[in-house]
Write a structure and sequence with these properties.
Elements lengths: L9 H12 L4 H19 L2 H19 L1
C-alpha cells in the first residue's frame, strides 16, 4: 500500500471531488463516496492492497477521535 502522495494534481483532484458533492444531500453524498470507492477498488484490483487500505483508513479514524 502506498500511503505517500501519488496524485500529480492533488489539489485539482480534491477540487473535483468537492465539486462532485455539490448540491447533494448527505445520503446522495454517501452514495457517491461508496460508488467511488468501489470504482477505485476495481481499478486497483489487488485484494491485499485493498484490505490494507481499509485497515489504514480505520486507524486514521482512531487518530481523528483522539
Amino acid at each position: 500500500m502506498n500511503s505517500q502522495p501519488n496524485i500529480p494534481d492533488a489539489d485539482g483532484f480534491y477540487a473535483a471531488l468537492v465539486k462532485a458533492h455539490g448540491g447533494l444531500t448527505d445520503a446522495q453524498s454517501a452514495e457517491l463516496n461508496a460508488g467511488l470507492v468501489f470504482l477505485l477498488a476495481n481499478q486497483c484490483g489487488d485484494q491485499s492492497t485493498l484490505l490494507a487500505c481499509i485497515d489504514a483508513a480505520r486507524a486514521c479514524l482512531g487518530e481523528l477521535q483522539s
